[in-house]
Amino acid sequence: MKKKIIQISIAVIFVLAGCSNQTKLSPLRKDIVDVVFASGNIETSNQYNVASQTEGYLVQSFVEEGSFVKKGEVLFHIYDETQKAQLESSNASFNYAMNSTKPNSEILRQLNAEKHQAMNKFKNDSIDFKRYNNLIKTKAVSQVEFERAKLNYENSMQALIALDNQINDLKKNLDLDMIKAKTNLIAQQNVNSFYKPASEVDGVVFRVLKEKGELIKKGETIAEIGSGKFIAKLFVSEEDINSLKVGQDVYIELNTAKNKSYKARISKVFPAFDTIEQSFIVEAEFAEPTLMLKSGTQLQANIVIKQKKNALVIPSSYVLQGDYVLVKGKDEKTKIEVGIKTPEWTEVLGGIDENTILVSQN
To answer: Are the beta carbons of 268 and 285 closer than 8 angstroms?
Structure first.
């Protein structure tokens, strides 16, 4: 990606009149700026795509492009008759399970009635056993009669214990059934929301991509919603990304406003390479309010990575490999110390001065 210089508000001179025809010149003083070129587009800070989480036909659209929406506002209605039936079934199952856990439910009422009868029988058998236990000591009853009373008592006690266990187990199972029914209902309610996608933010509808009656597949984008302030999304090449950091100045030219520069600053440098864009992504915020911005507008930008006022510079074409120059009157090449380098100009930090006369290699 080649570098491109946009006319920006800071005063920088990039052309030396007549230098292309000169074979000799001396270093001169001027402001020098090194920039990284980036392409990109305008978007909002909280922009996102409304993607369908289900499949069906679009029954109704409640918004259109340019509509202002609130967070949680339903945007579309996707065909959901089958889902509606499943939700009603889940709701009915949950209500039945919840009612079954109540003490006056039919199934618990029957078992509690059986328990009441068992308690009465156990009470009577307990009284008989105590009575026969006293009578056996005086031999007023036979051993067989005593054993029968004892057996009735023990059987009544075991029957009561078994009913208690049965009721407790039933309550646990009913509670578990209610939890399962509630979980299923919540899941169906969640799925049901897929058929009526809502906005995740307060914002503006930028684009509606589906029309009434169209089939929407799971994962397809239905609309684009924008929220927050406008930012510049910049695509930067791999060779330039390490030169960028938050806070650097950016000068932007919009395709909708040619030859006009807007100042911005880098606000975020994404750490990973974007395989879709085949670039690194950088975000920049405008330094001052900018009117008439529209999401999606294409742009070109120069990111200032280095700059220096009144620097000693020479044309970059005069710098030989290894940072050498040809000086008039010298047979050997002269080594120079360089600073900022651009395709047009090279800053000289040492090795020559303003009085040195350079000779072009050509």
So the answer is: no
Tally of structural domains, the chain: 3
CATH number of the structural domain spanning residue 264: 2.40.30.170
pTM: 0.57
Does residue 220 lie in a domain region? yes
289-326 confidence digits (pLDDT tens) = 887 788 889 999 999 999 999 999 999 999 999 999 99
Q: Tell me if 14 is assigned to some domain.
A: no
Host domain of residue 219: 48-73+198-225
336 domain residue, yes or no: yes
Q: In this structure, what token pair is assigned to residue 292?
A: 């008439």
Single-letter amino acid code for the residue at 53: Q
**CATH value at residue 211:** 2.40.50.100
**Do the domain assignments include residue 334?**
yes
- Contact assessment for residue 167 and residue 113, using Cβ atoms and an 8 Å cutoff: no
Q: Which of 90, 293, 63 is nearest to 196 (CA)?
A: 63
Give residue 296's region: left, alpha or beta (phi > 0; psi -120 to 50): left
End-to-end CA, the chain: 28
**Strand pairing report for 24-25 and 221-226:** unpaired
Task: Report residue 295: phi and psi, to 5°.
Answer: -60, 135
- What are φ and ψ of residue 136, in 5° steps? -65, -25
